[in-house]
Amino acid sequence: MSIRRTFAAVSLAATMLVAAAPTSSAVEDPATGADQPPAAERILATYNGSTIDLADGWQGATTCTEVAVGDVRCYDSVEAELKDLADESLGHAAAAKGQGIEVPDAIDTRGFEAEPLRVPSADSIVGTERLGSSVGTQAINDCIFGYACVYDTTTWGGRMLKWSASGTKNLSTWDFRDKAGSGCNNRQLGGFRLDDWRTGLPDPSLYVGLDRCVNFAKVSYTYGGNWNNKADAVTL
User: Fold this and answer.
1) Position with higher pLDDT, 130 vs 182
2) φ and ψ at 165, to 5 degrees?
3) Tens digit of pLDDT for each residue in 29-78?
4) Which of 181, 110, 109 is nearest to 146 (CA)?
5) How far apart are CA 87 and CA 37, in angstroms?
6) How far is 186 from 226, CA to CA, in rounded Å?
7) Residue 170's domain is classified under what CATH number?
């Protein structure tokens, strides 16, 4: 099966775009003055046979994956994730095969070929890496085909959070608000956007293009500094 990826003429061709969006519905905490995101539903995930609320912490898990809406699973390692999901996700099956992990009833990956990865242009290479490098506790390659991923370090390591379903993800409910240091986009189609909800100010946004990995510490932030540990939400 050949996976073809198409791009809009201008916006999706760019590696990333930083913009200021309209003021959000975030509110200010009267006690601390800190921005508080809008209320959101709890995110419940399975982890080692139990159900955990991610807003209360990951309880030792290193990777959590939204397999589908309402189906979130956390694991102690990427290998454990691949073994569990290779029979449900083409991306997981291909990654398991690439790492030599045998999974009974894994999805058949014969004929699977992802679109070749693009080399960043000279004006977009700062803060951006091609997928296929190997760095950090969770390597860039651990952001498998079909997913948008964020990591809690600037070198694609530490905890890793992945989504497959479209929509806006309120990071406070995933225990990732103001904790994202880097990200990768290995979706089949389209970029994803990070937003920082501000009170009384336009909300800055950072766009991550298809087949791109971005070190958020190398991307300038609208109000000074950089995008490391700034994101309050991710929209696919």
Assistant:
1) 182
2) -85, 140
3) 444 344 555 556 899 999 999 999 999 999 999 999 999 999 999 999 99
4) 109
5) 36
6) 23
7) 2.60.20.10
Quote the domain boundaries for residue 146: 18-32+43-58+118-235
Examine residue 50 and state whether it is found in any structural domain, yes or no: yes
Straight-line distance from the first to the last Cα atom of the chain, in angstroms, rounded to the nearest whole number: 24
In-domain check, residue 172: yes
Q: Which two tokens stand for residue 86?
A: 């290779």
Q: For the chain, how many structural domains are there in total?
A: 1
Percent of the chain with pLDDT over 90: 61
What is the torsional sign of CA 212, 216, 217, 220?
Answer: positive
CA distance 94 to 234: 26
CA distance 163 to 68: 8
Is 6 inside any structural domain? no
Is 157 a member of any domain? yes
